[in-house]
Automatic annotation (TrEMBL):
One Pfam family in the UniProt entry: SQAPI
GO process annotations (BP): hyperosmotic response; response to cold; response to water deprivation
Database matches in InterPro entries: Cystatin, Cystatin_dom, Cystatin_sf, Prot_inh_cystat_CS
Protein family (similarity comment): Belongs to the cystatin family. Phytocystatin subfamily.
Keyword entries, A-Z: Protease inhibitor, Thiol protease inhibitor
PANTHER family (UniProt xref): CYSTATIN FAMILY MEMBER, CYSTEINE PROTEINASE INHIBITOR 12
Species the sequence originates in: Gossypium barbadense
Protein name as it appears in the record: Cysteine proteinase inhibitor
Length: 115
């Protein structure tokens, strides 16, 4: 049986987690969360990224960020419609602590840009 991509299904993002576009989306998600919640979360890196074609693209991002001096993981969803110059944070939630445990694979630990 052949494998096919389900229309509207979530699939890995094109490119690496270190791409400038994904980093910009993750920084946008953190900034929007900080504005809405009056928080001081600081972006560190994108751990994982996938996307879903909707009326535009819904980016599913796992982001490592620092909150109150502790590294944490957050799940963010950013909806983008480039033809309308539209970008909106749909969801931002705590997904666990980034304590260096086995939750990271060698693949996740790529080189950081701009640090």
């Amino acid at each position: 049986m052949a494998t096919t991509t389900t229309l509207g299904g979530v699939h890995p993002s094109q490119g690496s987690q270190n791409s400038v576009e994904l980093e910009n989306l993750a920084r946008f998600a953190v900034d929007e969360h900080n504005k809405k919640e009056n928080a001081m979360v600081e972006f560190v890196r994108v751990v994982k990224a996938s996307e879903q074609v909707v009326a535009g693209t819904l980016h599913h991002l796992t982001v490592e960020a620092v909150d109150a001096g502790k590294k944490k993981l957050y799940e963010a969803k950013v909806w983008v419609k480039p033809w309308m110059n539209f970008k909106e944070l749909q969801e931002f939630k705590h997904a666990g602590d980034a304590d260096g445990s086995a939750s990271f694979t060698a693949c996740d630990l790529g080189a950081k840009k701009g640090f």
